[in-house]
Amino acid sequence: MIITNLETVPGKSITRHYGLVQGNTIRAKHVGRDLMAGLKNIFGGELKGYTELLSESRQEATDRMIQQAHSLGANAVLNVRYSTSSITQGAAELYAYGTAVTVE
Question: Could you say which DSSP state residue 30 is in?
């Protein structure tokens, strides 16, 4: 499966268009991560717990988007974008979306 944020795949032509595919996940913060983040806010530095949480969330949303594209028969997802939104205090959604196509 080809995944790209470009509108085309260089050197390939689009032979079929399936439309929008998407994947999302909603994750809540972990109390242990919050404690460490509070300390980092005092002393400064990367909030590694949150970095890992967002990285895992991004991968899960991407995997779900790819599954949907695969189920349609696509072999590529173009123009991939990510979005985040707050659902409630302590929980956020990560949303991945793109255009499913077949390229040759």
Answer: -
